[in-house]
Amino acid sequence: xxxxxxxxxxxxxxxxxxxxxxxxxxxxxxxxxxxxxxxxxxxxxxxxxxxxxxxxxxxxxxxxxxxxxxxxxxxxxxxxxxxxxxxxxxxxxxxxxxxxxxxxxxxxxxxxxxxxxxxxxxxxxxxxxxxxxxxxxxxxxxxxxxxxxxxxxxxxxxxxxxxxxxxxxxxxxxxxxxxxxxxxxxxxxxxxxxxxxxxxxxxxxxxxxxxxxxxxxxxxxxxxxxxxxxxxxxxxxxxxxxxxxxxxxxxxxxxxxxxxxxxxxxxxxxxxxxxxxxxxxxxxxxxxxxxxxxxxxxxxxxxxxxxxxxxxxxxxxxxxxxxxxxxxxxxxxxxxx
Length: 337
Known about the structure:
The structure is a single chain. By secondary structure, this protein is α/β, with parallel strands linked by helices. The chain has one domain (31-334): D-Maltodextrin-Binding Protein, domain 2, CATH 3.40.190.170. The chain is 46% helix and 18% strand. It has helices at residues 2-25, 44-59, 77-86, 116-122, 128-139, 181-189, 202-207, 219-226, 249-252, 257-292, 305-312, 319-322, 324-334, and strands spanning 31-37, 64-69, 91-94, 142-157, 174-177, 193-196, 213-218, 232-234, 240-248, 295-297. Strands 1, 2, 3, 4, 5, 6, 7, 8, 9 and 10 form a ten-stranded mixed β-sheet that branches. The radius of gyration is 23 Å and the shape is globular.
């Protein structure tokens, strides 16, 4: 009888311990953060967003839950940024818009990153560019956490471009560019006619012939978002696509210093991982483009020099919006030696 009672007691205690540990593992989070992205669900940026969400949940021991919303589900990057200022969207991995502060275009200036080894130094969290961009973001109520280096930028078209390596030749192609001077001026300097269209409307604009292509897209984004409507891809490498990992300042202030440190470390590692992976991502998606029937044109660094020079020729024009002092500092810190 005693032995039976003892066995029942042990089983009951084991059950209580199992129940207790199960509840601890699946405890209600203290906060749930909305993490907005602009890329498709199968895009590498979205995959790293999902990993960040998992890492934050695990390393905060469930205190913070992060829900990922890819493919502009919460709006395009301009709207998402505005909602972060208000505190109604918590986190993002997006292009940073410039309508709130034209100096934000600093990160998109063309011709200052020549390869991925340079990128590791340029986009480090202790580097000049991170500190400067965070300064601009903080003034608007947003905290910069890191960068997602997506890949080198090219041009996708529905018809062949005339002499794509000669900036002095009119390309005969109307392309969509982001609503930022850095892209518009650089594309025009390379011989393209340009038009600005909201990010979410680009596919339909190309499909219906409103424009003949895009400039300002890296390979992965071009394939995942526009692969069905492009016929040509020119890997011009004149710029590098960088998305920004950000969090609303209102949300950030609610997070403990301990968990802030955890999140900062996770995002620092995500930045490094994106840079290390970017070259392979470029090659992978160009191969996928070829399999899809898109004509992919690649060039040597020497062949691309005229386009890089054309892009850099636009830098003085950026002083109008960003100020001569900032551009002088940019040239001192980041201009190729």
